[in-house]
Amino acid sequence: MTSWRRYLGVDLGSTTAKAVVVAEDGAIVSSSAIAMGAVSRAGMQKAVDAALAGAEIAAADLSGTVSTGYGRRLVPGAQRTFTEITCHARGTSAMVPGCRLVIDIGGQDSKAITVDEAGFVQEFAMNDRCASGTGRFYEVLATSVEVPIEELGALALRGSNDLEISTMCATFAETEIVSLLAQDAPVADIASSVHRAIAARTLALVAQVGRHEPVVLTGGVAQNPAAVEFLARALGTEVLVPEHPQITGAYGAALLARDADRRGRPVADDVAGADGLFPRPSEPHACGSCDGTIGAPAGHPVDLGLPLRLGG
Ligand code: ADP
């Protein structure tokens, strides 16, 4: 048994499993991100194993585990699950102290979360009914223009002409991009124009919760420099990106495990029914007439009663 305490946070997302081990002071000891497809248990196990190996500990050495993400209930050994909203807010507030607006763009959803001075969630809006404005849309673009997702941002930043992108539907976007390619439009212009259109889409999400600054972009898409640049232009303000933007949810989960242990209570007993605080979308997304976003009504008690602190 180790003489110090270590905590594990696991974010089983729609495309990528993330795991983070933190120490008692909240410092990240190790982390991993494994892209293995939709809510992959194998990906999760690999991510957990890699994070534990990086921390040079075994699962039995952990003093607490919290999971989050779409697949959070599939994580064995987790004493507690929390929604992505809570964990992204917690992790991002610790990584970027003072942040007031978290925009998280993952593989299958995008969220805008306002955070108060103390790091508590105020309001959030979420698009998880439609691929527009999510990592999936960037993947469609990357596939259509035959560029690896890692190089898409550099390509888009080289674009100079604003082409009209008439659809924000991922299903039809591929057809439109192929049509532009057939018209011999420069690939860089197509890429930049799609990025610009997605940024405008994200602006609509932000409008649901109100603009607050500083703005922090997280999620896998935050690794795309053009996504950051076009969002900053659309918002008319600087967009900060943490050093490890894809692991903020897992980091927040690990900190929540640490916070509970620090108060001397098992994490499992910390807050009953916390997940139930968040309304999940129940209405089908109707293309064309709906903007695909849902959110907590103003003043909804999204805070979980946990003493979320800024900083580790
Ligand atoms: P989830 O939690 O839903 O699995 P992530 O936050 O891990 O989603 O983000 C996944 C998305 O991030 C992918 O759909 C892809 O668009 C984007 N992405 C992943 N890696 C990179 C990269 N190296 N550069 C640019 N974009 C990336």
UniProtKB/TrEMBL annotation:
Q: Which Pfam families match?
A: BcrAD_BadFG
Q: Which cofactors?
A: [4Fe-4S] cluster
Please list the coiled coil stretches.
none
Q: Which residues form the ATPase BadF/BadG/BcrA/BcrD type domain?
A: 8-257
Q: Which UniProt keywords apply?
A: Iron, Iron-sulfur, Metal-binding
Superkingdom to which the source organism belongs: Bacteria
Q: Which SUPFAM superfamilies match?
A: Actin-like ATPase domain
Looking up InterPro entries in the UniProt record yields: ATPase_BadF, ATPase_NBD, CoA_E_activase_dom, Dehydratase_Activator_Redct
CDD domains the UniProt entry points to: ASKHA_NBD_BcrAD_BadFG_HgdC_HadI
Put simply, this protein is called: Acyl-CoA dehydratase activase
Species lineage, top-down? Answer: Bacteria, Bacillati, Actinomycetota, Actinomycetes, Propionibacteriales
